Amino acid sequence: MTELLEKLDAYKKEIDAVTAENEKQVEEFRIKYLGTKGLVKSIMGEMKNVAPERKKEAGQILNEFKQFVETKYETLKAASTNSEHTASSIDLSLPADDFPIGSRHPVALMRNRIVSIFQRLGFAVAEGPEIEDDWHNFGALNLPAHHPARDMQDTFYVQTNPDWVLRTHTSSVQIREMEKGKLPIRMLMPGRVYRNETVSARSHCFFHQVEGLYIDENVSFADLKQTLYFFVKEMYGKDVKVRFRPSYFPFTEPSAEMDVTCFICGGDGCNICKKTGWVEILGCGMVHPNVLSNCNIDPNKYTGFAFGMGIERPAMLKYGVKDLRLFSENDVRFLKQFTGAI
Ligand code: DAH
């Protein structure tokens, strides 16, 4: 037993003095002392020579020794990796490794642009559900059952409950905001909408819109025009011209569609504007008194304007996307092209 203790003391001194300058030397240490044919293993083998009544004590001593060697190994390992990385192997002047970052979706990019312009005019942002009931998508918007204008939009109905539809426009969110009963309202409502259309390069069964709504006392058509004019100037530059064409929407009276001078050809005529020099970008109008009444807002006290625009088309024009389907196919080669775009 004393012999064993002396031996261990000697080994401890020897091990204590070991230094390692690199990972290779650390590994040599591990093999020599802790490997399957290493010192610790062979000393453990000496247990069999210890008298039975001292086995317990000897076991403890050997275990302590083993731990001592392991701690030394860990210390050497930590020191060698640290020193290698700080002293020699790191060149701090090298540029950092690239790591892949995602990209924003072009539809999201366009939505954010639109939203940020209106936010500067004090519009807040709201969202509503994509599965709507008939009342919010149609009824409250002055489209009662069997109204012919319902055919303007090919609706997806939920099979188990024909009162539910996939919303055909974001105008449904107008109703949800007005129902809350907090006035005035100055709100922008972006979101996805659905229509039963054949999927092609130019139309899809789902797409995105941004709805705008402003309700207060004394809101006039002049406010509508000024607001939208501000928007297009911010969006397409100060030289852009706008024109309003009379139109029909059941939920606005009067209604209009707004065109801007073609931002591809500047108004000279190209195939985007079908040689007219104008591109239609949104529908708008003064909120119909029936719509206000449907939401318990007094149309004699309050007036308002609303507008709705698609997001995909301006995005296609801005980014030169020729096929609407690319937006929803999740092809990373397409999406990667928008890395870094804001
Ligand atoms: N909801 C209409 C559509 O999807 C767009 C629209 C037109 C919205 C006029 C409006 C509006 O708020 O006033 O075609």
Topology:
Elements: H1 2-16, H2 23-34, H3 39-44, H4 55-88, H5 106-119, E1 124-125, E2 131-133, H6 134-137, E3 164-166, H7 171-179, E4 185-194, E5 206-216, H8 221-236, E6 242-249, E7 252-261, E8 278-287, H9 289-294, E9 303-310, H10 312-319, H11 332-335
Parallel strand pairs: 1-4
Antiparallel strand pairs: 2-3, 4-5, 5-9, 6-7, 7-8, 8-9
Bound molecules: 3,4-dihydroxyphenylalanine.
3,4-dihydroxyphenylalanine binds next to strand 8 and strand 9.
Core attributes:
342 residues, 2 domains, two-stranded antiparallel ribbon, 11 helices, binds 3,4-dihydroxyphenylalanine
Task: Describe, in plain words, how this protein is organized in 3D.
The chain has two domains: 2-89; 106-338, Bira Bifunctional Protein, Domain 2 (BirA Bifunctional Protein, domain 2, 2-Layer Sandwich), CATH 3.30.930.10. It has eleven helices and nine strands. The protein has helices at residues 2-16, 23-34, 39-44, 55-88, 106-119, 134-137, 171-179, 221-236, 289-294, 312-319, 332-335; strands at residues 124-125, 131-133, 164-166, 185-194, 206-216, 242-249, 252-261, 278-287, 303-310. Helix 1 runs parallel beside helix 4, helix 2 (23-34) runs antiparallel to helix 4 and helix 5 crosses helix 10 (312-319). The longest helix is centred in the N-terminal third of the chain and has 34 residues, at 55-88. The termini are far apart. The mean pLDDT is 92. Bound molecules: 3,4-dihydroxyphenylalanine. The site of 3,4-dihydroxyphenylalanine (DAH) has 11 residues, from strand 8 and strand 9. 3,4-dihydroxyphenylalanine binds next to strand 8 and strand 9.
